[in-house]
Specification:
heterodimer, A: alpha/beta, Rossmann fold, 4 domains, four-stranded antiparallel β-sheet, B: about 375 residues, 18 helices
C-alpha cells in the first residue's frame, strides 16, 4: 500500500553553532553511573565491591528481550546511589569507580567479521548489549534476527532535531568506521541494499562528499528534505522505500539503525571495544562555546560543561531550560549533574523566550491538525481531555502520538498541546492495561 | 545547587517568534484594510469631492467605523469584569485579558457589513447583541459557536428590516435617481422579468460591481478589494485559500446552471458572485477560524455547503442577502463536520461506519444544488 504523505515542516536548525570546533574528548571520568530504572527489572551479574573490566556484563535486562548492560570503564563497583536520569527523575544507579586502566574483556578481541555468519554477527550485537542510540533504545539484535525478508537497511543520519550535531560529528570524524559497520549490519540483516538517509542541507554536503568514495557497491546515499520530523523512523522508511507499515518497519522489509549505533558496532568488530562511549552535543544560546564531545556512557553532564566554557555570564540559571535530548522531544532538567545514557544525544542550554503569562484561548486555526505527522487533532484531544471522555480519546487515536512536539511548536496561542496529548495517551494506555 | 527552569517540551515555539494569535489578528486587520479604505473613499471622501451639501451625513460612516470597534472593546471589558471578578484584581489584569480577547473584531465586522447610513442606536444595539450574546455569553474568545458579527448583523436584519433596507444609500447615492433607494440585490429580488438591463444596467456595468461603486453595505461592495485582501491573507496563511475559492466557485456554478435554465448569459452567475456580500463573506467571514471546521476536508465540505445554501436563500428563498444566513446555518453543523472529519483523518481511510456520513453530505449537497436549479424550471 502506498503511504500517505506525512505532514512536515522546516524548522530552523541552529546546527552551525556546535560544529565550528572539532569534537572534544572526555573518556576518563572519575566514576560512571548505570541506571537501574528499567521497567522489566534486571538481574545482577556482579556484587558491590567486585572489579569489572570494560565490556563486562554488570547486569542483564529481564523481559521478552534479554540483553546485558556492560561496564563502560574498568574499575570497581562502589554501590547504589541516587542520581538524576535524563527523564528528570532521581533514580537508583550503580556507581563504578574508574581505575583508568581501560582493561577490556577479551571476548570481542580479534573478531574476523568477514568470516562470521549472520547468526554470529547478531550474537555479537546481543553480547555487547547494542541498543538503538537514536532515542528509542531498542535492542539491535532483536531487529536484525528477524525471520522476515529484509530488502533494505537504512542508516538514519537525518538528525532532524534542531541544535543536535552528535551524529553529524560522529560520521564526520569516523566515516570509514561507519561504512565498515554498515557493511556488517547489512550482513547481519541478510540484505544486499543499504541506504544512508541524510538531510539535503548545506552543512551536510561535506559529510556526503566524504562518504561517497567510501561506499560499497550495494550502498547508496539518499537525501531527505530538510524538514521535521524527517528522522522519525516512519518518515524515513516511507519516503525512502515508498512502502508503509503498521507497527514496525520490518513489515515493509526495512530495518533502520541510527548512525551512532552503526559506529558502535564497527568499534566492536574492528577494535574489540564494546559500546562504551558516545558523541554528545553540548550546545544552546546559553553556552559560551558550543560543541561536541565524545564521552563515556554514564558520565555526569556537569563534568562536561567546563570543556565548553561553561554558561554565559549574566544569564539567570532559573531562566534557562536545560534540555536532555533535542529541543522538540527532550525533557527539561532541574539540575546539571544528570547522567548520560546510551540514548542521550545532547544537553542543550536554551534561554527561555516565552513572553507574558496569559496566552489567548484556542483560535481554532487548525494548524496543530494540519502539521500532526500521526494525523491526530490535538485541539480536539485537549478538549476531550478536559471533559475526561476516555472512550472518545481512544477513537481520536491518542495512542498514535509520537510526542514530536509539532503541535505545540506551531500553536499561535502557545497552548501546551503536546503535553495534553501525552497525558491523554498515558490515560488511555493505563486503561488498556487494566 | 540552583535549579534550572523546568517546563514542557518543545522548547522551541513559533509563538515565541512572532507567529502568535495576536499577529494573526494584526494580519487580519491588514487584510481588511483595502475594504476599509475603499469604504471610506466611497462613502466619505467621494461624496465630499462631489460637493455634497450634507457634510455631516458624509462623515457619518467614518464616525461609525471609529466608534464601533471601541464600543465593542468596552463591552468586552465590562463583560470580562463581570465574568472574571475573581481573577481580575487590578486594571493591569484587565488589560492583559483584553489583549487576548480581540474585542474590537465583532464591532468592526458588524459595522463593515451594515448599511452606511444605519441609525446609530440600531448599530450599537446590534453590536451589543453580537458581542455579548454571540461571544461573551459563550465564554469569550475561542468559545463561541456562532460568528459574533453575524449574530449581531442577523439581529439587525430581522429586528429592523425596513430601517436596514432604507439605509443602504450613502449621501451621494441618495442624490442619484437611478438607484431608487435599493441595493442591486434588493432590486433583483423584486424583479418580475430578469434581464441584464433590469438587473445590472441601473448600476452601470459589471465592472462597477467588480470595483464596488454600487450601493451596498459599508465595506462589502468591492470585489476587487476583497480579492486583494484574500491574496494577502492567503499568503500570510491566516485563512485557508481553498475556502473562499470553493465557496465562490460553487455559487458561480450553481447560478450558471440557473442562468441557463432561465435563458440568461454568463452575466447572470457573474452578477451573483459580484453582488451583495458574497466576496466579503467568502474571504473574511466563511474563513473565521473559531466557528468553522478545522480539518482540511471539513473546510472544503463547509465551503461547498455555504455555496449551495447561499444560492438557496438568495435566489430560491428570495431573501435579498443569503451569505450571512448561510454562514450562521453552517456554524451549527461545524461541530458535527469537525468530529466526522477528525475521526476519518485518524486512520486515513473511509471506514464502513463513516460511509453514511459522506453519503448524507453528498446527498444534501447535490440535492440542494439540483433543487436550486429545478425550482427555476
Amino acid at each position: 500500500m502506498k503511504p500517505r504523505r506525512l505532514p512536515e515542516l522546516h524548522i530552523e536548525g541552529y546546527k552551525e553553532m556546535s560544529i565550528t570546533q572539532g569534537p572534544k574528548e572526555f573518556l576518563k571520568p572519575k566514576s560512571v553511573f548505570i541506571p537501574l530504572s528499567i521497567p522489566n527489572g534486571v538481574v545482577f551479574k556482579k556484587e558491590i565491591g567486585d572489579h569489572v573490566l570494560l565490556g563486562e556484563a554488570i547486569m542483564e535486562v529481564e523481559g521478552r528481550f534479554k540483553y546485558p548492560i556492560l561496564s563502560p570503564v574498568s574499575g570497581t563497583i562502589k554501590g547504589k546511589v541516587k542520581k538524576w536520569h535524563p527523564s528528570n527523575k532521581l533514580v537508583d544507579m550503580i556507581e563504578i569507580e574508574n581505575d583508568f586502566k581501560e582493561e577490556k574483556v577479551d571476548t570481542f578481541l580479534n573478531l574476523k567479521p568477514d568470516e562470521m555468519t549472520r547468526e554470529e554477527l547478531i550474537n555479537v550485537m546481543m553480547m555487547t548489549g547494542l541498543v538503538g542510540m537514536g532515542g528509542a533504545g531498542f535492542p539491535a539484535y532483536v531487529k536484525y534476527s528477524t525471520k522476515e525478508k529484509v530488502d533494505m537497511v537504512i542508516i538514519n543520519l537525518a538528525e532532524c532535531e534542531p541544535f543536535i550535531t552528535c551524529d553529524y560529528t560522529c560520521v564526520l570524524y569516523n566515516a570509514q568506521e561507519l561504512i565498515y559497520g554498515f557493511r556488517y549490519l547489512l550482513k547481519a540483516a541478510g540484505c544486499n541494499h543499504g541506504v544512508i538517509a541524510i538531510k539535503d542541507k548545506d552543512i551536510n554536503n561535506i559529510v556526503i562528499e566524504m562518504l561517497k568514495p567510501l561506499l560499497d557497491s550495494n550502498m547508496e546515499i539518499r537525501l531527505l528534505r530538510d524538514v521535521y520530523p524527517a528522522g522519525w523512523e516512519r518518515y524515513t522508511v516511507e519516503t525512502i522505500s515508498g512502502r508503509t507499515y503498521k507497527n514496525l518497519p520490518i513489515e515493509a522489509g526495512v530495518i533502520v539503525s541510527n548512525a551512532s549505533t552503526c559506529y558502535s558496532f564497527a568499534e566492536t568488530l574492528k577494535y574489540g571495544i564494546p559500546p562504551s562511549k558516545k558523541y554528545l552535543t553540548i550546545t544552546g544560546d546559553a553556552i559560551v562555546k558550543p560543541g561536541n564531545v565524545i564521552a563515556k556512557i554514564g558520565t555526569q553532564i556537569n563534568d562536561l560543561i567546563p570543556l565548553f566554557g561553561g554558561i554565559k555570564e549574566g544569564i539567570d540559571i532559573s531562566n534557562i531550560n536545560l534540555i536532555a535530548g533535542g529541543p522538540m522531544t527532550g525533557k527539561s532538567m532541574f539540575f546539571q549533574d544528570f547522567v548520560t545514557t546510551h540514548t542521550l544525544g545532547a544537553a542543550i542550554f536554551l534561554v527561555n523566550k516565552s513572553k507574558g503569562k496569559i496566552h489567548p484561548e484556542c483560535l481554532g486555526c487548525g494548524r496543530c491538525t494540519d502539521y500532526c505527522p500521526s494525523f491526530l487533532s490535538p485541539f480536539e484531544i485537549r478538549r476531550e481531555l478536559k471533559v475526561g471522555n476516555l472512550e472518545e480519546l481512544k477513537l481520536l487515536g491518542v495512542t498514535k502520538c509520537i510526542q514530536c512536539g509539532l503541535c505545540s511548536f506551531v500553536c499561535p496561542s502557545r497552548i501546551e498541546l503536546t503535553e495534553a496529548v501525552g497525558k491523554a495517551k498515558d490515560m488511555v494506555l493505563k486503561l488498556g492495561r487494566k | 545547587m540552583e535549579k534550572y527552569l523546568v517546563s514542557s517540551a518543545p522548547y522551541l515555539r513559533r509563538a515565541d517568534h512572532n507567529h502568535t494569535t495576536t499577529r494573526i489578528m494584526v494580519d487580519l486587520l491588514i487584510g481588511l484594510s483595502p475594504v476599509i479604505l475603499y469604504s471610506i473613499f466611497k462613502n466619505v471622501v467621494f461624496p465630499l469631492i462631489k460637493g455634497t451639501t450634507d457634510v455631516l451625513g458624509a462623515l457619518y460612516p467614518l464616525l461609525t467605523l471609529v466608534v464601533s470597534p471601541i464600543y465593542s472593546l468596552l463591552l468586552e471589558a465590562l463583560c470580562l469584569y463581570i465574568m472574571k471578578k475573581k481573577d481580575i484584581k487590578s486594571f493591569k489584569d484587565l488589560i492583559e485579558e483584553l489583549k487576548v480577547g480581540y474585542g474590537i473584531f465583532p464591532g468592526l465586522f458588524i459595522v463593515l457589513i451594515s448599511p452606511p447610513q444605519i441609525k446609530f442606536w440600531i448599530l450599537l444595539l446590534s453590536i451589543t447583541i453580537g458581542e455579548v450574546v454571540g461571544k461573551m455569553l459563550f465564554g469569550g474568545f475561542g468559545q463561541n459557536i456562532f460568528n459574533p458579527a453575524i449574530v449581531g448583523r442577523a439581529f439587525m436584519a430581522f429586528a429592523f428590516s425596513s430601517e436596514v433596507s432604507s439605509s443602504y444609500l450613502n449621501v451621494y447615492e441618495q442624490t442619484l435617481d437611478a438607484y431608487a433607494g435599493a441595493t442591486p440585490l434588493i432590486q433583483f429580488s423584486t424583479l418580475e422579468t430578469i434581464t441584464y438591463e433590469n438587473a445590472v444596467s441601473n448600476f452601470g456595468s459589471l465592472l462597477d460591481f467588480f470595483i464596488g461603486s454600487v450601493p451596498g453595505s459599508l465595506a462589502e461592495t468591492s470585489a476587487l478589494c476583497c480579492i486583494i485582501g484574500y491574496i494577502y491573507l492567503s499568503v500570510r496563511k491566516v485563512i485557508d485559500y481553498k475556502v473562499p475559492l470553493i465557496y465562490v466557485a460553487t455559487v458561480f456554478l450553481n447560478t450558471l446552471f440557473i442562468g441557463l435554465v432561465l435563458g440568461q448569459g454568463i452575466w447572470y452567475p457573474t452578477f451573483n458572485i459580484l453582488s451583495g456580500g458574497l466576496m466579503f463573506g467568502a474571504v473574511y467571514m466563511a474563513t473565521e477560524p473559531v466557528t468553522s471546521p478545522k480539518t482540511n476536508l471539513g473546510r472544503i465540505m463547509n465551503a461547498m455547503m455555504l455555496g449551495v445554501l447561499t444560492v438557496l436563500f438568495r435566489l430560491v428563498g428570495n431573501l435579498p442577502e443569503g451569505v450571512a444566513t448561510s454562514i450562521i446555518t453552517m456554524n451549527i453543523f461545524s461541530l458535527v463536520i469537525n468530529k466526522y472529519c477528525i475521526h476519518m483523518r485518524v486512520d486515513g481511510k473511509l471506514d464502513k461506519n463513516e460511509v453514511p456520513g459522506l453519503v448524507i453530505f453528498l446527498v444534501i449537497f447535490m440535492g440542494l444544488f439540483l433543487y436550486n436549479i429545478i425550482s427555476f424550471l
